[in-house]
Amino acid sequence: MNTVKPGYVRPLDLRNGRVDLGFGAGGRAMAQLISELFARAFANDYLARGDDGAVLPAPAAGERLVMATDAHVVSPLFFPGGDIGSLSVHGTVNDLAVMGARPLYLAASFILEEGYALAELARIVDSMAAAARAAGVVVVTGDTKVVEQGKGDGVFITTTGVGALPAGRDPGGARARPGDAVLLSGRIGDHGMAIMAQRESLAFDSEIVSDSAALNGLVEALYAAVPAEAVRVLRDPTRGGLATTLNEIATQSGVGMELDEAAIPVSPQVHAACELLGLDPLYVANEGKLVVLCAPEHAEAALAALHAHPLGAEAARIGAATADPQHFVQIRTGFGGRRMVDWLAGEQLPRIC
Amino acid sequence: MNTVKPGYVRPLDLRNGRVDLGFGAGGRAMAQLISELFARAFANDYLARGDDGAVLPAPAAGERLVMATDAHVVSPLFFPGGDIGSLSVHGTVNDLAVMGARPLYLAASFILEEGYALAELARIVDSMAAAARAAGVVVVTGDTKVVEQGKGDGVFITTTGVGALPAGRDPGGARARPGDAVLLSGRIGDHGMAIMAQRESLAFDSEIVSDSAALNGLVEALYAAVPAEAVRVLRDPTRGGLATTLNEIATQSGVGMELDEAAIPVSPQVHAACELLGLDPLYVANEGKLVVLCAPEHAEAALAALHAHPLGAEAARIGAATADPQHFVQIRTGFGGRRMVDWLAGEQLPRIC
């Protein structure tokens, strides 16, 4: 992101102005958008250099790099509990955190639709900057493109993160073993149902608020409490929900899973909204929840560490990995029955993140 | 990019199939798209791990990290000399190269429009994989989202790159000094006019072909020939063209520039197409050209190194940085006159990259 500001020009009209194609053309208007909007919000020395990329200190000796990317196309752009700006920070920070990494740097790339209000763009960028500060990451470089009206949808944001993976940490989807405890950091379905309730204009006694949050602090609290080796798998159950995440892990690790339905926290509002729309909360996206597969002998310490963190107050032990050559995920229902929990098939909630 | 393949399902129809919203929903269809299309084309151990990010070796001791990102929204998606896939690799590889870095890793994020033909997507992904192999970079992680028909435009691709910056190298837009030679690696305007000719269905005696190419090899050849300290500024003149790039450098470094119009290579076809469309080649985008500002005592060695590389065969010394408190870029015309070369104002060629 070139942050050079050209000589004197009239300031951008951030109150009533709109995105036009010139903002993506690489000339004076783009330089102005970047210096007056992006560079101001994300202010840091890396961006201020004004070059085509950022020069960054390498991780400490013995640490590996972790890299993750996420495109964000959520609709609507603003929702209870967040917006595409904060979501685009949380999504990528969480991808790094569940690799066991300490998130360090973000790159942000914007695809703007011609005609979008600059005032709304500024709100999104400010929200993104606040989320980055809260998560302890720095937006070090970026890019902006503009597409014609009807060829985009307001704002799409791709964020890419780089983090440092401390020696000894190596969680991965393929590392679960039969007997591992399955922990979940809180109730499921809040993000997906917050978006759906807004799209469908559903009104409930109390509003459903997205759980969108950065999980890196929670992951650090976990690693502080148990040996790194005991943390087998970390995942954030986003698109496809808890059900799909657990199926992925089962397939990757070659294990089965047995879950206890009664142990999985779901809020009454999400439960009601899901009933109304014919959805199963197990398949609804979350943006601030952590799934941990942990060696059983350390499961209680891990759960206590989650409980002690604000984002894990409602954490629960929801089941265990099993030896199952068919890698099935099964759930014990309230009536003593048992049902299969398959991958999400087809498309349940488009553009949820 | 989770590359886990779920249990047996019918293979994707890569000949006649189309993108549907399910491919972005996080379930079985998305897992299939990723394993059968992306992971197959980009095959490497980082992707094969199937986690939410990639774990990568850190740069060697003493090297710094460089990070750059670019969204690609070029229209049309296929053009003479390339397509959005190869372009998305070259764009980010070049951003790293002009920071002086050796490009190592790419993250790729796709925003697909519902209904887009899978066969075309496969062509794009294969082209991307070939360009990455040729440039010596590895696509280590990725993400896919799908938007409804009419909310996107086929395919948008954001690539983010990480590279290693060897000790001693520190080119930057603010480092030019009066007297520095301005070198250009070849003729300008080919990329932008290849796109425009296709959009406007212009026919010329010989087709205009995009110069889209990875510049990291050329940059390494330059550093092999002159002391790192002598390389003051590297830039690839993309959106806004050579004129805007030189204005950016002039502003960042607080210098002026004097160029020699006759020394700037432009092909006859690009010249003719620009005349026809009322465009100035100085403002037309390039995707495989390098601008070097170099200490004058090393300029001839630098130019010889460019000439010796296939991408620099037509390299030329086009002018010099000057002491000018107003940071003007001026050009000596063929008739002994002199004109100002300003920043690109407004929008000349939308969606050129």
TrEMBL record, chains A, B:
InterPro entries: HypE, PurM-like_C_dom, PurM-like_C_sf, PurM-like_N, PurM-like_N_sf. Transmembrane segments: none annotated. Pfam families: AIRS, AIRS_C. Residues 177-331 form the PurM-like C-terminal domain. One of its GO terms (biological process) is protein maturation. Residues 50-164 form the PurM-like N-terminal domain. Belongs to the HypE family. This is Hydrogenase expression/formation protein HypE. It comes from Thauera phenylacetica B4P.
